[in-house]
Design brief:
The protein is built from 9 helices and 8 strands. By secondary structure, it is mainly α.
């Protein structure tokens, strides 16, 4: 019997939202099948919420650096699409036994259950989405003229919020939980569950790894925001380099994100109960998490040596949109029309020259 203070799992019905479109339309359009319905998985909803939150956060950070409002959407479309593709490819590559070999007759047919393409059946890896998303950001930056490192720094904190939202999907699906535990916050899991080894009693609780990662990611988001957006002087004295917001440019916020997420994920992954491919006795995602930590350290070290000053602009040289491009008519009036000639241009020039030292990354 589960402990009184344990964490209950949602009922199976909460895994998806069933919208009976056929029942509503069949009376007025008889050709619509009565059993026709739309099924939206809860996991998909929380992922969408996470993506939306990440885009809003990135837009705020990027526009404070001088980018056009919502230009991040043009980049984000590429990042999301390629991130989904990368997530699926990475999952398949690290779970080959689930798609190939005995009992898997046609893994290449997208119209058959269990194919490598059927991401709607579940199966996506965050590390794959990071790789695919990074490629998407690179493509989006080439199109919009934005600097890759500026965009990466703007996106990085929001990724932690998006990933925290995604972990709620694991909670609703009762998946990716941890080893058995007798802690008072143990997670209840309905039986049968393919991830639970044979022989574990019915009343055993499990580590709520979804909750651990949510807490870790939100804490990382708060840390990064405080570290990169707070005032750089206290009592008239300059703070150490690592806690000055003008230090966290040129991709170093991305590096900090990789270190934070990699450290936490290496532990969460090591106590998970679901099967996974291993190398030298260590789960593949633990290796990936450790790789993220190393990559983050390398990015911070290399960029600190290569770029000693602040970023001059979030746009590549010659790619910043002309201010006049946003004006639809010569008859458009604004309060700035009463200013002296040249004042607006001077302010824009000054803002661009000082954006790296006065605005967050």
């Amino acid at each position: 019997m589960a402990a009184p203070v344990s964490i209950p799992s949602p009922p199976p019905d909460w895994k998806q939202i069933h919208i009976p479109i056929g029942e509503w339309l069949h009376g007025i359009m008889p050709f619509v099948p009565e059993d026709w319905a739309i099924r939206i998985t809860t996991y998909a909803l929380v992922i969408i919420v996470g993506i939306f939150a990440a885009v809003v956060i990135a837009n705020r950070r990027l526009t404070r650096r001088g980018a056009e409002p919502w230009v991040i959407v043009d980049v984000g479309i590429w990042a999301v699409v390629l991130g989904i593709i990368g997530a699926r490819l990475y999952h398949v590559a690290t779970h080959l036994g689930d798609y190939f070999g005995p009992g898997h007759d046609n893994p290449w047919n997208p119209f058959q259950p269990g194919s490598i393409w059927a991401i709607w059946e579940g199966g996506g890896a965050i590390f794959g989405s990071l790789i695919g998303g990074a490629i998407g950001v690179l493509i989006g930056c080439r199109i919009t003229g934005l600097r890759f490192w500026s965009v990466a720094d703007a996106i990085a904190p929001g990724l932690l919020i998006a990933q925290a939202c995604g972990r709620f999907g694991n909670y609703f699906n009762q998946e990716l939980f941890g080893l058995p535990t007798d802690l008072p916050w143990g997670l209840e899991i309905d039986r049968p569950n393919p991830a639970i080894p044979v022989g574990i009693p019915e009343d055993v609780l499990f580590h709520p790894t979804f909750l651990y990662e949510i807490i870790w990611n939100v804490a990382g988001f708060v840390l990064i925001i405080l570290l990169t957006e707070k005032i750089v002087r206290v009592a008239g004295r300059r703070l150490p380099t690592l806690v000055r917001k003008d230090f966290w440019q040129w991709g170093k916020v991305l590096g900090l994100y990789l270190i934070w997420y990699g450290v936490g994920r290496s532990w969460f992954e090591s106590i998970r109960l679901d099967p996974s491919d291993t190398f030298f006795g260590i789960r593949s995602n633990v290796w990936a998490a450790l790789g993220a930590v190393v990559l983050g350290i390398i990015i911070i070290a290399v960029q600190s040596r290569r770029h000693l000053g602040v970023e001059p602009d979030v746009y590549q040289p010659g790619r910043r949109p002309e201010p006049s491009a946003a004006v639809d008519s010569e008859d458009t009036y604004s309060d700035s029309d009463d200013d002296e000639p040249g004042d607006g241009a001077a302010e824009l020039t000054e803002a661009a020259a000082t954006s790296g030292s006065t605005r967050s990354s």
